[in-house]
Amino acid sequence: MLIIKKDAIMSQAKKTKTYVRPDNTAVITCPDCGRQKTAPVASFKGIKSSIKIKCACKNTFTVDLEFRKRVRKSTNLRGTYLNHSQKNSRGALVVKNISVNGLEFSSIDVHNFKVDDELTIEFTLDDEQRSEIKKHVIVRDARKNSIGCEFERSGEFAFDGPLGFYIMS
């Protein structure tokens, strides 16, 4: 039996992540013994939550609940941007993570971006083929250290071709 405890702070060594299902349950797996339990987590929705778990094997660990609808893959891909909304300004960027809906990047010019800016992003995947990706995106979130973008949908899907294989791998 797994016991969920709110408000826990634990070391990174015993931290795992689980994705929340559409029915607001999460499958929690003990990293020591592998025991699994499906737990209701609706009460955590709307907040980025870490919960402390004590397994029947006496192991205590922390689980980060991920309420995203799509898996987001962490990356460290170098590329460039062209900001069509700001006189075609250009610069370098690093793609921090990517999903089928969009990506997050950092740049030394992060303070210059505004919500709804239209950009063209180019970067090279770190796959075997070194696939070059060029996508049109719209800025949806301009934070202090990063920019969140959504892929523009113009008859193409962001996850077609090499990018789709990369995200799902």
What fraction of residues sit in β-strands? Answer: over 45%
Quickly name the level 1 CATH class of the largest domain: Mainly Beta
Shape: elongated
Which sheet architecture does the biggest sheet show? 6 strands, antiparallel, barrel
Order of helices and strands: EEEEEEEEEEEEH
CATH architecture descriptor of the largest domain = Beta Barrel
The count of domains is 2
What is the SS-derived class? mainly beta
End-to-end separation: 32 Å
Any idea what the CATH superfamily of the largest domain is called? Answer: predicted glycosyltransferase like domains
Mean pLDDT across every amino acid position: 83
Oligomer: single chain
| Helix proportion | under 10%
Give Rg in angstroms.
19 Å
What name does the CATH topology of the largest domain carry? Thrombin, subunit H
- Quick one: how many beta strands? 12
Strand order of the largest sheet: 7-8-9-12-11-10
Poorly predicted tracts of residues:
6-12
Number of helices: 1
Structural description of this entry:
Mean pLDDT is 83; it is low at 6-12. The chain has 2 domains: 3-66, no CATH class; 73-168, predicted glycosyltransferase like domains (Thrombin, subunit H). It has one helix spanning 161-168, and strands at residues 3-5, 15-19, 25-29, 36-40, 49-54, 60-66, 73-83, 89-98, 102-106, 118-124, 132-142, 147-151. The longest helix has 8 residues, at 161-168. The strands form 3 sheets. A 6-stranded antiparallel barrel has the order 7-8-9-12-11-10. A 4-stranded mixed beta sheet has the order 1-5-6-2, with no helix packed on it. The chain is elongated. The chain contains 1 helix and 12 strands. Strand 8 (89-98) and strand 9 (102-106) form a beta hairpin. The two termini are 32 Å apart. With 169 residues, it is mostly beta strands.
